[in-house]
Amino acid sequence: METATMTPSPTTPTHAVSMDARSAPASAPAADAPPLIEIGGFSFWYGPKQALFDIDLRIRERAVTAFIGPSGCGKSTLLRCLNRMNDLIDGVRVEGSVRVQGQDLYGPDVDVVDVRKRLGMVFQKSNPFPKSIFENVVYGLRLQGVKNKGVLRDACEKALRGSALWDEVKDRIEESALSLSGGQMQRLCIARALAVEPEVVLMDEPCSALDPIATAKIEELIFQLKERFTIVIVTHNMQQAARVSDETGFFMLGKLIEFDKTDVIFTRPKQKMTEDYITGRFG
Amino acid sequence: MRRLGRLLKGGEPFIWLTGSALAFSLLMVAGLLFLILRNGLGFFWPADVWVFTLDDGSRIGGRIAAREAIPEPGAKGPVHLKYRLKVKEGNRDVTGADFVWVDEAKIVKRERPADMVAFERREWGDFYGWAKAVKDGEKVVAEGHGPAYRALLSDLPKAREVRDEARRIEKDEIGSVNYAKEKLRLELKRLELHGVTSGPAVAKLKAREDALTATYDELVKKLDEVRSRLATTVVLETVDGKEKEVPVTQVLRADRPNEMGLLAKAGRYLVGVWSFVSEDPRESNTEGGVFPAIFGTVLMVMIMSLVVTPLGVLTAFYLREYAVQGPVVSAVRIAVNNLAGVPSIVFGVFGLGFFVYFIGGSLDRLFFAESLPTPTWGTGGILWASLTLSLLTVPVVIVAAEEGLAAIPRGMREASLALGATKFETMWRVVLPAVMPSILTGLILAMARAAGEVAPLMITGVVKLAPALPVDGYPPFLHFDRKFMHLGFHIFDVGFQSPNVDAARPMVYNTTVLLLVIVVALNLTAIVIRNRLRKKLRTSGI
Ligand SMILES: Nc1ncnc2c1ncn2[C@@H]1O[C@H](COP(=O)(O)OP(=O)(O)OP(=O)(O)O)[C@@H](O)[C@H]1O
Ligand SMILES: [Mg+2]
After folding, report:
1. Which of A80, A263, B375, B484 could form a disulfide with B382 if both were Cys (CB 3.0 to 4.6 A apart)?
2. Distance set, CA A187 to CA A53, A130, A206, A207, B176 (Å)
3. What spacing in Å lies between the alpha carbon of A209 and ligand 1's midpoint?
4. Could you give the ipTM of this predicted complex?
């Protein structure tokens, strides 16, 4: 397993991506740089039930990586493994490795809290705390012991601007976060994740509960965030994946079927299954 | 048949069933409240005082307490009913009893003399009649019903001053001397325990003791002086001409209810209510106020709340958040729920054995050896009673808190964890605030239960008459080792243990009203806080 991670075998789709990326002149000056996250030979069990099978995947820095696939195929599971949220579930087991900048997340002396600080997460169902908007945004900073009101205010404004919510809420920052609309709440959750300056933002179907306008706003936001953060997004919406992501992984039944540049996946996928799924013939 | 089936399916009968169940419960509660209020609150109303002349020429004066039909043994069907009156005659020192039954048929004349006076006295209860004369020693200051009454009224404020002053000297000045003396005595005893019976230390303490004794004598003299400041006496006269001379300081209030207008009566009523809640009890609790009992009840409930909330919440957190869910935890949960069904007296016995004898006794041996064999903590006290009640009510808080914890969406915890919070930080910053309303609900139920509980208190620290409140001006100010009074026990004591049950009955009802008012007030406070929190935490539908 270890070696597989270190040197991806030529047959893995990951490899194909890097080949492709190298030949593509357009995006990604970081294409040559080593990937930020390397998932190698990763398998995952919920108790006796295996949910992920031997996943190999590389996620580039300052790019948007999308996970697509039919319901129950393990997209969320993989995403949650990236910041070890699955540790909270009893009886789970992992095999293989997830390396972030060379450090194995599942290594023996890894601080889970630290991992979660570095890899922020936005959930499918927005989950603001029943506190004020301000307190929601600075929650992570308060955890880190920041007390200075001025620092917190600046960080709050920066995060809210970063999530394109500032103009809408700047006058009611002390009001309860629960008074926001669904789309605003989701952007608040994004701001909350951004405020601690993570390296990676993991998003699990962030738009699934939102209307098209709110969705458009968040997609636009993802586009801007790409400049500063590495983003991994799970989505059911093909158009969304095509619009926002640089690279896309297609999952089925816990296996990574294909991983490549997004336009490759959507225009000339190598696997028949991917093509069927994307064109909607999948049943 | 088919129609019946349709009717049942439609649910109409069910609505009626639920509706009548509700109506029935409401009716019972309303009936109970009505009974209590009717019997209690009328007590303070300054009703008219009557003089009845009977056919044998004797005269009876007082307030009408009740009227009832005279049962006729053997009579069939509705006959010409005869009634009798229960008259509160007062004047217990003259007549020997408070109440007398008067057959209406024997009454030949009823009067309400405008100048008839109702006296409220410190001892021997009410007196109905007239002030015949006011004397200063042997000298008559005023004579005749009118002048004597007015002279008495003008002396009453002074009487009150003298009473208050004497009370202050007794309680505060003499009290603090006694306190200091007791401390000296204990210090001497402590030295003795260490084998020191003479020497400079003992001599110094002895000297101080002598000084205190001198102060004490002085204070006693001062007390006598204060008491002698108002030496006037009043001669009271009953309706049948008997006389009784009492010091003016013994008279608390004097009214002419038959002369009073509605407004004056209402004012007098409020004064009565106020003195009930603000004064100390008199006459072995059958008269006066219940302030110490109110104080004891509220303080006990508060101590209990301070103990039971953290205890219950921590338990609930462990059960729900840390313990591995399984048969053991389920068994614990069931056991906790069933604790609520243990008779409260059993908790009392446990409290007596564990808190009072074991913990209290050990504390005494370790820290208060000098005052043994008089126990300090090894006897009932407000702290032990409160702790016993906390045990009694902790299941309620646990259950409520656990339910609150179960209702918190997983997303909220995950959001916190995903931001790098530890499990503890998540619980402290997110879960605990969100579960607060549920905790308060549990506390509300616990308080209501605790305030009404009597049995376990009787053996862990409640007394009929506590010499001092558990909070006062002497360090350490909070004396949680002291015995205390409690409204629930007061009801039992006044209603069933007092020598004069008839006279005390309104007190029983009024104490009940008061207990209800306190429970409602405590609950309302908690409910208001909870609703505020809820509003803050209100989860919006997306
Ligand atoms: N806590 C859990 N315990 C046991 N099995 C689980 C748990 N969570 C998910 N699974 C199972 O793991 C598999 C993958 O689930 P996952 O949530 O990753 O799917 P998904 O791809 O995110 O689906 P969706 O698109 O519907 O969100 C599913 O078969 C699911 O039933
Ligand atoms: Mg999912």
Report:
1. B484
2. 33, 16, 9, 10, 67
3. 18
4. 0.81
